[in-house]
Fold this sequence. Notes:
Elements: E1 2-5, E2 10-13, E3 21-26, H1 37-55, E4 59-64, H2 71-79, H3 84-101, H4 117-129, E5 133-135, E6 139-142, E7 164-165, E8 177-183, E9 193-195, E10 198-202, H5 204-216, E11 220-226, H6 230-245, E12 250-256, E13 259-261, E14 264-265, H7 276-281, H8 286-295, E15 302-304, H9 306-328, E16 330-332, H10 340-353, H11 358-378, E17 380-382, H12 383-400, H13 410-424, H14 428-440, E18 443-448, E19 452-457
Parallel strand pairs: 3-4, 3-11, 7-8, 11-12, 13-15, 16-17
Antiparallel strand pairs: 1-2, 5-6, 6-8, 8-10, 9-10, 13-14, 18-19
The structure holds zinc ion.
Amino acid sequence: MIIYNTLTKEKETFSPLEKGKVKMYCCGPTVYDYVHIGNLRTFIFYDIIKRIFEHFGYEVKQVINITDVDDKIIKNSMETKTGIYRYTKMFSEFFFEDIGKVKIEPATIYPRATDNIDKMVEIIEALIQKGFAYKAEDGVYYSIEKFKDYGKLSGVKVGQGLSRIKSDEYDKLSISDFALWKFWDEKDGDVFWDASIGKGRPGWHIECSAMSNRFLGDTLDIHCGGVDLIFPHHENEIAQSEAYTGKKFVNYWVHSEHLLVDGRKMSKSLHNFYTLRDLEDMGFDPLSFRLMCLDSNYRDKLDFTMDNLKRYEKTLNDINISFKLLEKLNESDSVEINEEVDTIYSKFDEALADDFDTHSALAQFFKLLDLANIKIKDGRIGKSEKKKIIDTIMKMDKVLGVIDKGDINKDVIELADKRKELRKESKWAEADAIRKEILNNGYNVVDIGDSDYIIVKKRNHV
Ligand SMILES: [Zn+2]
């Protein structure tokens, strides 16, 4: 497999620390709000690369942290007069609901920052002892000029006269010593830990160094995140982790690009800000958004527009109709197998192995569906060929995750059967009434001639 490494700025051949295994850390959500579609693109990307490694036979240990204490969380939970634990519990539940809707498979572990404070304190103590960190009046800070490799990921240059910054986020122009531990002040209310290094709470950056070390060890194969995390967050993670262990922290840094909306940065003030829940309220199938993400490579900016999303919803619907029709297609005894299927599948693999090129992989998936559509038009297919195409589609979908699975509600099937009988008796009005009932249940019936049908998920924008 070839991976573009942000650290070296080159495409490299992937070589794991341990044969057949991948240790992967992905920066997870800060649970202070609903997931917006920019975050969601990143989380879908984490899922895809995990699935691709698994597709190539790797055993993946994927750690995605939940940041459940930081500046924004404390501020919001205070403003809404909700205790921090109740507040973050609520938004982490929403997070899991949302990622489930776009078929993100669970990570191996989702550690919470507040469950790992002891590890953070342990690292900070070690950093003080080794001379990389110092106590100031309002917290413990990392002294970035002590770490000679500071800037190796992002290219920032450490200059003279460094300032200190307590806030977790800062811009590319201010290269500063950053807070590892923030001493308690009134703004923090009842959020603090009594630690050996003082009463306070951790900075954001130390959370990831602590959780990656605890769950994956000193060196990781892959660390991923959105490009906006390269500086300062990932630069700071490297400084903390490498100063702590004396070893290389990450072999491959993988970053996904921004999502734009109508060509602009998504922001609440521009009124182009969407959460997944907003899209659902507009009647979209969340998987249409997944398909949109797959069609754009992770290192390209993805320009989200409503028209595009509608187009993907239609494509998603077509994919599922074709697949169902293929399953129902009459078989002949022919044992002939179209060799094109193998070629398509190997090109699909080649694309995925080339820096997770899901756009080209998806093109092969569509090629295979085109092949199926020709057979559907013919009205018949050889038995072996049908099996081969279906098996190949299913193997591809283990990576893509766009084919509807799961049983259809028994009542819906009964309704569809009843409708079929009514149609046979030319009772069109009654048959139509039943179609509406099926739609109300979230499904749609597509007729095959006069005598058969398939049931697909109802989609509004097709
Ligand atoms: Zn992180």
